[in-house]
Amino acid sequence: MATEMAVIAGAGSGLSASLARLLTRQGFRVVLAARNVSKLAPLVEETGALVVEADVADAASVENLFAVADKVGPLSLAVFNASGRVRGPIAELELEAVRQALLVGAYGGFLVGQQAARRLLARGSGSILFTGATASVKGMSGSAGFAMPKFGLRGLAQSMARELAPKNIHVAHFIIDGGIAPKVSGQVDEAGQPDRRLSPDAIAETYLAIHRQHRSAWTWELELRPWVENF
């Protein structure tokens, strides 16, 4: 079986790190992209992943990211984990901060999705996975600057799924409906309750399962929440 190559855009120490570790164990060659690559040094040492400095809101930067990744191997899986977030009263939100949140969280998803789609269409298979949040489907008070990019990202994912599924490209959107734990599953957190937050390792396992789904029963959207979370 040929080695798979995955690009994780918006990489950090949480879900992206869990994904990188899992994918590496599963035989993937992993490319991590972030604006601040120095923070990824321990993860790179642990996994052997290639790290690329990239700004997902900049078209040239994203194009370069995938050009570098092409040298690692043919793309099989792209994961978009970057997020733009601004909170506060609507009358007080800073214009530039909101613009940047939209560029990173929605436009960045488009740029990464477009580059990934071009490669997977040429290959004839593969997956593009987008990380959403509660704000993808529910705009909370004081959260306009977060809901806008998340709603936009969900719309992008839905449109891409409908367009690309008939071409054997699996596109899926994940609603992470709860806080992600900084610790491993089963540890007691600050509230004194185990698994009160979502385990990043458990989320990563779900992402991989969706990537490997049989195309006769593809999931386009999945909602994940901890067992103590209210619906």
In words, what does this structure look like?
The chain is an alpha/beta fold and 231 residues long. Helix 3 packs parallel to helix 4 and helix 4 runs parallel beside helix 5. Helix content is 40%, strand content 18%. The longest helix is centred in the middle third of the chain and has 29 residues. The chain has a 7-stranded parallel beta sheet with strand order 3-2-1-4-5-6-7, sandwiched between helices.
Summary keywords:
seven-stranded parallel sheet, alpha/beta, 231 residues, 7 strands, 40% helix, 18% strand, globular
Count of DSSP E strands? 7
- Class by alpha and beta content: alpha/beta
Number of helices: 6
Strand arrangement in the largest pleated sheet: 3-2-1-4-5-6-7
Helix content: 25-40%
| CA-atom Rg in angstroms | 17 Å
What is the end-to-end distance? 41 Å
Strand-and-helix sequence, N→C? EHEHEHEHEHEHE
Summed up:
The protein is of the alpha/beta class. It has helices spanning 15-25, 41-47, 59-70, 95-123, 144-164, 200-211, and strands at 5-9, 29-34, 50-53, 75-80, 126-133, 169-176, 221-224.
